Amino acid sequence: MIKLLIASASIASLSGCVILSPSPIVEAANLLGSAITGVSSMTPATPQNPVVFAHAPIKEVCIEWNGAVALSDFVPSLQGELQRHGVPSRVYDAGTQPGSCPMTLVYSAYIKWDMRTFSNAYTPYLTFASVTLRKDGRVVGSASYKIGSIAQDKWSSTSSKLGPVVDALLISNPVVEANNSAGAPVVFGGS
């Protein structure tokens, strides 16, 4: 009995607000839902409707700048994913394609703004991206990303959203993760 009184006095003296649900089943369901959302936001998205034609490994890509995409990390994320496949890239303004670059990449994307949990500042996040790869003006491949139906990957990084899209487009370029002690790239997957 004394322990119960001490516990009650300790809880009453807490300065924070404690809300307990009358039903432990509701609390368990809330916890399970939060866990599923957390885990699913860490899984990579699958590209939507990829169409890729057989092509030789790509040595370099020129990315056409799209000023309508107002997400500051979109192009750096795209370049990082290309580099992960060992493909260097450079960006050019629309209408000024360099002649020395036969492989080009064009993109479009949509963003939305919302507040993260425990934040009072609005932050943009990627909801849709379409990426098309062309060689000498002919389409070699196209793939897109679309946010999940319950927005489980809403706050995932732009790179993690674009990674599967670039993977689908660069089927002829295996992922190059690191260098071994001899300085040669270590290749994972691919042919």
SSE order and pairing:
Blueprint: H1 2-13, H2 24-40, E1 48-52, E2 61-64, H3 74-84, E3 89-92, E4 103-115, E5 122-135, E6 138-146, H4 158-169, E7 175-179, E8 185-188
Parallel strand pairs: 2-3, 2-4
Antiparallel strand pairs: 1-6, 4-5, 5-6, 7-8
Explain briefly what this protein structure is.
With 191 residues, this protein is α/β, with parallel strands linked by helices. Helices cover 27% and strands 30% of the residues.
Word description of this protein:
By secondary structure, this protein is an alpha/beta fold. It contains four helices and eight strands, in the order ααββαββββαββ. The strands form two sheets. It has a six-stranded mixed β-sheet with strand order 1-6-5-4-2-3, covered by helices on one side. A two-stranded antiparallel sheet has the order 7-8. Strand 2, helix 3 (74-84) and strand 3 form a beta-alpha-beta unit. Helix 3 packs across helix 4. The protein is elongated and about 85 Å long. 19% of the residues are buried. The model is unreliable at 180-191 (pLDDT under 50). This is Cell division protein FtsI. Keywords: Cell cycle, Cell division, Signal. It comes from Herbaspirillum rhizosphaerae. Residues 1-28 form the signal peptide.
